[in-house]
Amino acid sequence: MAIKIAKKKPKWLTKISEENRRAADKAFQGRCAFIIAYLEFLEELDDINEEFGTSFKIDDVFGITQEEEQKALDIVEGDDDEED
């Protein structure tokens, strides 16, 4: 039994391949942006540790409570002054 193989991909298969390539490219670009943000965060963390004499590590992010987060936001936004 002979099987005939097409010399050219069908349009539908070419379209799927192109969509998959674009999706993979977009995912790769997102990954690169994520890595850059991570590296910038580490640099900012080093700056904070140097400025305030602290020794925070990236894992310390997971120990931040909602109360601490809200207090920091209030201070930054100036809402803390209203309570005094």
Helix content: 55-70%
Work out the radius of gyration.
26 Å
Number of strands: 0
SSE class: mainly alpha
Largest sheet: none
SSE run:
HHH
Number of domains: 1
The overall average pLDDT, rounded, is 89
* Share in β-strands: under 5%
Overall form: elongated
List the uncertain runs: none
Distance between the termini: 89 Å
Question: Counting H and I runs of at least 4 residues, what is the number of helices?
Answer: 3
Structural descriptors:
84 residues
Explain this structure.
- The chain is mostly helical.
- It has one domain.
- The chain is 69% helix and 0% strand.
- It is built from three helices and no strands.
- It has helices at 11-52, 66-77, 80-83.
- The longest helix has 42 residues, at 11-52.
- The N and C termini lie far apart (89 Å).
- The model has no long low-confidence stretch (mean pLDDT 89).
Which helices and strands appear, and what pairs or packs with what?
Blueprint: H1 11-52, H2 66-77, H3 80-83
Task: Give a concise summary.
Helices cover 69% and strands 0% of the residues.
